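Notes continue from the previous slide.

Worked example: a multi-chain complex. Inputs as given:
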Amino acid sequence: MTEEETVEETEDLIQEYSGPTSYGVPVTESHGQTVLHLMPHELLETVTLLKEEGFCMAIDVTAVDYLTHPGRKDLPDCIKPERFEVVISLINHSQGTRIRLRVQAGTDDPTVPSLFDLFPGTEAMEREVWDLFGVKFDGHPDHSRILLPDSWEGHPLRKDHDVGQIPVQFSSEVGRL
Amino acid sequence: MARIPLLGDTSHIAAEGLEGLEHNFVTARIEDLVKWSRARSCWPATFGLACCAIEMMATGAAHYDLARYGMEVFRASPRQADLMIVAGRVSQKMAPILRQIYDQMMEPKWVISMGVCASSGGMFNNYAIVQGVDQIVPVDVYAPGCPPGPETLMHAILTLHDNIQSGELTRRREINQGGAAIDLDPPQVINEAPVEIVEKSTS
Amino acid sequence: MTDSKELLLGEPERVFRRDESPVLRLNEEEANALVGDPEAFDDDHRMILNMGPSHPSTHGVLRLMLEMEGETILRSKPVIGYLHTGMEKTAEGLSYLQGATNVTRMDYAAPLFSELAFSLATEKLLGLEIPPRATWIRMLMCELNRVSSHLLFQATNGMDLGAVSMMIYGWREREEVLRFFEKVTGLRMNHNYIRPGGVAADLPEGWEEDVKNLLEIIPPRLEEYDVLQTGQPIFRERLQGVGVLNPAEALALSATGPILRSTGYAWDLRRHAPYLAYDQVDFDVVVGTYGDCFDRFAIRLNEIRESLKIIEQILDRMPDGDYRIQNKKVTPPPRARIDESMEALIHHFKIFTEGFHVPEGEAYVAVESPRGELGCYIVSDGGPNPYRMHIRGPSFVNLQTLPHLMEGGLIADGVAVISSVDPIMGEVDR
C-alpha cells in the first residue's frame, strides 16, 4: 500500500471513529495521563497545535518495539498498531499538565517526521531513538548514531537483537559451558 | 602490612644508642631503594569512568587520605603517571581509548582494576560492556565492590605497594613476558653498506 | 499579554538554526578531513580541537569537538556514548524488584532519585498506595541525596576553576551524609533502598540524632563556602557573564533543573507538580537572574539550604507506621516470619525468583532530581519484567545546551560551563 493510500485509509477510519478525540486525534487516558494516538503524517500538525495551546517543552522522545508484546489493549479501534511506536511527552507549564503522544511509526521502515523545527531539544533524543531502534526521523539535522560507535551494526533495543550475554567461564571447568 | 626494608645492619644502634653509630652512612642495595621509591610515590592517572570514580575521588579527599601514601597527585597526562586505576565500567566505545592511554604510559606501570565492572563486567553482562578490563590491559590488582568503598581501594593500593616493593611484580613479568612487552634486542641492520665517515679537513 | 511574555522569555532564534549554528554537526570523517587539510579554513588561527574523553575536567567521559579560532570557541559538538551500558536492555531481563539496582547506577551522584522514579512508575502501574511513613522516609533520603549531590557539584566546580581546596572541603561534608546513608541503607552509593512498595528497611534507632547532627554541622560550613567562593573577585570574574542562556532558549532545548531556573524561569516539579509529600512541606524555589554560570552555582548552593529546611520539617513530622506496603504479592515478608509461616515462605520465594506480575499498561512519572526532570517510562506486558523501561535522563537533554553556552567563550570558560551544567555521564549514556 502506498503512503497516500495509508493516509486515506487512516483518515477514513478516524472519521468513522466514535470515541473521544482531542486536537483532531483519538485520545485515551492512562493512569491519570492524557494520551493522544497518532499516525506519522499527523504529528507535525498536532504538535504545532499543542505548542500554540501552551505546551512549551518537549520532555521526552522515545520508542517502544512491540514485536514480542502479547497485544496492546489500550489502543483505540481506529489505530492500526505497528511494530514501532514513538512516544513523545510534552508539558504545559501554565496549567501544569502533561500530554503523551503515541505515534505508530511503522514496521519495516519506521519513519516519523522530526520535531526539531518546533522543539530543538528533541535533536539528541531522536538521535538516540535512531541509534537504538532504527526509527528514521525526516528532517533531522544530524541523523547519526549518538551512543554506540559509528561502526556498530544493528539496533540493540529491538526485540530481535540479543542482549549479548557472555556465559561465565568457570576456571575449574575449562571448555565446558 | 608494608615492611620497611632493612637498610644495612643497625643492630648496634639498637643496643648502644646513637653513640654506637661509628660510621655516618648507611648501606642499602640500589634495587631496594628503587623499589621503595617506586612504591612510595606511585602517581595515578585519571581514568575515572563511572560510579567508582566518585569513590576514588572520595579516597583522595580529606577523610580517607591518599596523600599519606604519596598518591594524591592524579596526573592528567598518562606520560607522567605510573598507575592506572580503571574505575568504572568500560564500554565498547571506550575500550580503544583505554588501550591508547595505557600504551602512552611509561614503564614501569601498573593497573588496578577497581570495582566489579572493571574486573569482570559486573552486573552488566550485555552487548555494551567489555567483560573485564583484563581483556584489554594486563591487570595487577583487582578490587571488588560495587562500588568498592575507600577502605577497599586503599587495601588494593597497599597490596600493590607490597607487591612492587617485594619485587613480585617485576619478577612475574619477566616470567610471563607481560608488561608492555618492549623489545630490547638491538635493531636489525637492513642496509649492509657501511656508513662512510667523512673526515673533516683541519688544514 | 503575549508580547510581554515573549519579551520576558527572550529570543530563542539561535537554537533553531540548522546552518550557522553553535552546534558543530560534523561526523568523524569530515572532522578528520578538515584537521589534515591546510586549505580547509581561510583563517590561520582556526582549527578543530578534540577535548576528552579522558580529560580531567570533562566530568567523566564526555568528549567535545571544538571548532576554535585561537582560544575562542566558535562551534562545538558534545560526543557521548563512552559510558553506554545498555541499561535499558538489561532492565528487560530483570524483575521489578531488581530494577532498582539497575537504574540506581545511572545517575551515580544522586542514585536515590532514579530508584524513586522507577518505584513510582511501577507503583502507578500496580495501582498501589504507599503508607505515609514510607513516603516521608523517601522524601528524607531524597533531600539528603540532593544535599550530597550539590556538595559534589561544589567540590568539582571549585576544582575545575582552580580552587583545589574546595574539592577537599566539598567531600568533607559529603562524607558525613554518606555515613548516614551507610547506616540506613548499608551502602555509601548505589543504595537500592527505594523499591516498589516502599523502602527496603526502616530507619535505624537514633536516626533523629544523626540527622540533627547533620543539620547542625552543614550550615556553618556553607557559610565557609560563601566566604571562600561567592564574594571572591576571581571566582566572580570566572563565572559571571559566562555561559548565558535566556529562558526561551532553555525551554526550546528542553533544559530543566538548575539550568532552567538560572534563567529566571521558576519551574520546580516539587512545587508545580508535587509528588510524595512535597505539597505538605514549606520551601522556596531558588531562581537565578542572568542565566550565567554564577547563577547556577548560587542556585545549587542555596538549594542545599532549602533541602536542609525540608529535612528539618521532616524530622519534626515523620509519621509512624509501616515502611512498606503490606501487600504480600509485592513486598517480601519479614525474614523472621519465613520460619513460622509456609505462606510467607512461598511469597518470599515467588517474589525473589520470578518476581511479581505488574498489570499491562504504560506509565510515565517524573521527579525533580538535582540535575532536572528525571522521568521513568515503563511499558508492561503483564509479566514479571518490564517490557520496556526508559529513563529520561536530565543530563542527556541538558547537554544539548553546551554548544550554545560555550559559543564565543574561551576554553577556560568552556570548562566552567561544563562544570555548571553538571552532567553525570552515567545517565547521559545509560
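Summary box: The mean pLDDT of chain C is 88. Strands of chain C lie at 46-51, 63-69, 72-79, 194-195, 198-199, 361-369, 372-380, 388-392.
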